[in-house]
Amino acid sequence: MKTFEKPLSAQEEKVLLEKYRCGDMEARNELIEKNMRLVAHVAKKYASTERDYFNEDLISVGTIGLIKAVDSFDSDRKVRLATYAAKCIDNEILMLLRQDKKKEREVSMYEPIGKDKEGNEISFKDIIGENDYRKCPDAVEDYMFSEQIKCIYDNIDNVLTKREKDILKYRYGLFGTKELTQNELAVALGISRSYVSRIEKKAIEKLRGVLRQKRLL
What we know:
CATH superfamily of the largest domain: Winged helix-like DNA-binding domain superfamily/Winged helix DNA-binding domain
CATH topology of the largest domain: Arc Repressor Mutant, subunit A
Helix content: 55-70%
Number of helices: 10
Radius of gyration: 25 Å
Oligomer: single chain
CATH class of the largest domain: Mainly Alpha
Number of domains: 2
Distance between the termini: 55 Å
Strand order of the largest sheet: 1-2
Number of strands: 2
CATH architecture of the largest domain: Orthogonal Bundle
Strand content: under 5%
């Protein structure tokens, strides 16, 4: 906090806002610089998240929120710029965290996520099946696959039982979990490997059924 300048008084803020309203870009820059302490304050509460962000990363993203706040603030409001800016900074950081969470759930269509019984690497695309998109542009194929993935994640909790979801999750490393073989899962769940295989096939067929229903397969 000591590296940032002291915040503006209400009168100083009002003067700078008026100047910026008249096109003074120096006033805009000063409004940003004088509110950087606020960015650091908001970023501090997210510094120890599970993603282990560096403070500098959060401050960089928070600064974007501050700039948006300065540029969109209505000086006729009966609130201080800092009150409005704090919400904008918070929203910008939360957006980053949500995007990262979403990325954790994304699975590349071609990235190996396990091996079949012959020892060949398989991808998520191999699990859900593949239509003959070879005559279509890559962009169309990518779009269709992304829609399939979204549909599966949107419906997996409603379609599968907890055991079915757990088996698929650990078999194919979904949701950031560690991949396990059918034998490892059988030991962990206290059931036979063949039973794990049956549950796995049944769960995959249920998901394929949803894709067919949505006309995505």
